[in-house]
Amino acid sequence: MSELHTVNKSPYEKSSFDSCVGYAVAGSAILLMEDGVYAAMQGGATEAKVKSAQGVKFYALGPDMKARGLSEDRVIEGVEIVDYAKFVDLAEEHSKVVSWV
Amino acid sequence: MKFSIQINEGPYQHQASDSAYMFAKAALEKGHEIFRVFFYHDGVGNSTRLTTPPQDDRNIVNRWAELGEQHNLDMVVCVAAAQRRGIVDDGEAERNGKDATNIDPRFRISGLGQLIEAAVQSDRLVVFGD
């Protein structure tokens, strides 16, 4: 029973990223979207958390990064940039989608 | 796979409706089925046909209506949320003594049971909110 979590708020605005990372178990995935993509950037408060989350795969929605002028070169190592088609695939691959709104 | 989508925020103020639209479009392009789109809370504002954004901006309501038309989507607006926010169809206008309607004909007003049914009948329910 692996889950796809979506986080849509900046980690500097709300605590949903922290809550989500604390809840996610090995085998699950976290998709950072809308303002949530700020959590995917290098050098921020989230980098250590992303790198130390055991068995949790991180994704960031590319169109939302582009809309915010965020460079793909500055994404934390291990975070995969995806489009909406891949978002749909992730929702299909995991047994449920948990939206941390 | 059968998806349902829940939208909790209105157009233009939040990205939720835009994200949900892009997700729905991508899912349909992949050949998935969308069992229902449920508009809840401020999300009911996505259904008023009177929306008139500037010409160089996207028309979020028309965009949903066109996608709904193209794929025969069941787009349901929560009745209690709609009543509070002045989203009215013919039935609600008559029941509540209103002098006008504003819902786009591609949407329909119904109850929360429709959301529960969507959750039960679909393989995945994806929620877009703020």
UniProtKB/TrEMBL annotation, chain A:
Q: Which GO terms describe its biological process?
A: tRNA wobble position uridine thiolation
Q: Which UniProt keywords apply?
A: Transferase
**Gene3D superfamilies from the UniProt entry:** DsrEFH-like (3.40.1260.10)
Q: Which GO terms describe its molecular function?
A: transferase activity
What is the official name of this protein in its record? Answer: Sulfurtransferase TusB
A GO cellular-component term linked to this record: sulfurtransferase complex
Q: Does the keyword Iron-sulfur apply?
A: no
PANTHER family for this protein = PROTEIN TUSB (PTHR37526:SF1)
From TrEMBL, chain B:
Q: What is its main location?
A: cytoplasm
Keyword Cell inner membrane in the entry? The reply is: no
Q: Which domain of life is it from?
A: Bacteria
Q: Is Ubl conjugation given among the entry's keywords?
A: no
Q: An example Gene Ontology cellular component term from the record?
A: sulfurtransferase complex
Q: Which GO terms describe its biological process?
A: tRNA wobble position uridine thiolation
Where do the coiled-coil regions begin and end?
none
Pfam families in the record, alphabetically? DsrE
The protein's UniProt keywords, in alphabetical order, are: Cytoplasm, Transferase
Subcellular localization, as worded in the UniProt entry: Cytoplasm
Q: Which GO terms describe its molecular function?
A: sulfur carrier activity; sulfurtransferase activity
NCBIfam families in UniProt: PRK00207.1, sulf_tusD_dsrE
The record's family statement is: Belongs to the DsrE/TusD family.
Know the name of this protein?
Answer: Sulfurtransferase TusD
Q: Which organism is it from?
A: Solemya velesiana gill symbiont
